[in-house]
Write a structure and sequence with these properties.
By secondary structure, this protein is an alpha+beta fold. Helix content is about 25%, strand content about 35%. It has a single domain, classed as Cyclic phosphodiesterase (Cyclic Phosphodiesterase, Chain: A), CATH 3.90.1140.
Length: about 190
């Protein structure tokens, strides 16, 4: 099983991103667009795991708590690794400090189960599109730069999810395996 841990976000933000994608899609057919219903904020990519690890994973993740919900602002667009040779278009995520702490806590509780710690700095974002080649990318970059500082809404999250990713030729299919309330009583 290919697994990851992620935060979900509101239908309002998804709707705004759906509208943005509809506007940008007309610029180039080269991009592979992520359906808004499949978007998420990855907290930890676990990777391949045996089904026998599911119960220990669930038990470890259930131990994570925070005193406050995660406050999130969705704003701005950018490119990984950079706009000169982009591989992905992303929407920026600005969050309360406890989002990074949440990701670190998930990393910490999964290490004893044999899942290696993340070596890269946690950078929350939403992937909007991937570019399999450079064909037509210049048009997307120019169009996206018009929205570089746009705001797409805010959200407040109190739970995260263990998700299975099934890779298919048409794109990844995500199955939510479990949800975890990390704020026991949201203020």
């Amino acid at each position: 099983m290919r697994l990851f841990v992620a935060l979900d976000f509101s239908a309002v933000v998804r709707g705004r991103l759906r509208d943005l994608i509809a506007r940008l899609k007309t610029e180039s057919g080269a991009a592979r667009w992520v359906p808004p219903e499949a978007m998420h904020i990855t907290l930890k990519f676990i990777g391949e795991a045996e089904a026998t690890k599911l119960d220990p994973l669930r038990a470890a993740l259930a131990e994570i708590h925070s005193a406050q919900p995660v406050e999130i602002q969705f704003c701005g667009l950018g490119f990984f690794p950079h706009e000169r040779q982009p591989r992905a278009l992303w929407c920026g995520v600005q969050a309360s400090p406890n989002l990074a702490r949440l990701a670190a806590d998930i990393d910490t509780v999964l290490r004893p189960l044999g899942f290696p710690a993340e070596t890269r700095k946690f950078v929350p974002h939403l992937t909007l599109a991937r570019f399999p080649s450079n064909r037509g990318v210049g048009e997307i970059v120019a169009a996206a730069n018009q929205f570089r500082s746009s705001e797409f809404g805010s959200d407040r999250e109190t739970e995260f999810h263990l998700i299975e990713s099934i890779l298919k030729p048409s794109g990844a299919q995500y199955n939510r395996l479990a949800s975890f309330a990390f704020v026991k009583e949201a203020p």
